[in-house]
Amino acid sequence: DKDTGFHRRYCWIKFSTPQDAQNVLQKDSHILEGAKLVLKQQPHRRRSQRKTQSE
């Protein structure tokens, strides 16, 4: 964002274990550089679905 100097996009975060991801999602709020983050979990897809969608 040109006005604030902060990014206005999204990012992917890969956790070491599924339990680590669940721990983060159970917390009330997350703040990064003064901005509240909206966390969403990507639906788990099978490998066969990944190949089909990337082609």
From TrEMBL:
<dbReference type="InterPro" id="IPR012677">
    <property type="entry name" value="Nucleotide-bd_a/b_plait_sf"/>
</dbReference>
<dbReference type="InterPro" id="IPR035979">
    <property type="entry name" value="RBD_domain_sf"/>
</dbReference>
<dbReference type="GO" id="GO:0003676">
    <property type="term" value="F:nucleic acid binding"/>
</dbReference>
<protein>
    <recommendedName>
        <fullName>SLIRP protein</fullName>
    </recommendedName>
</protein>
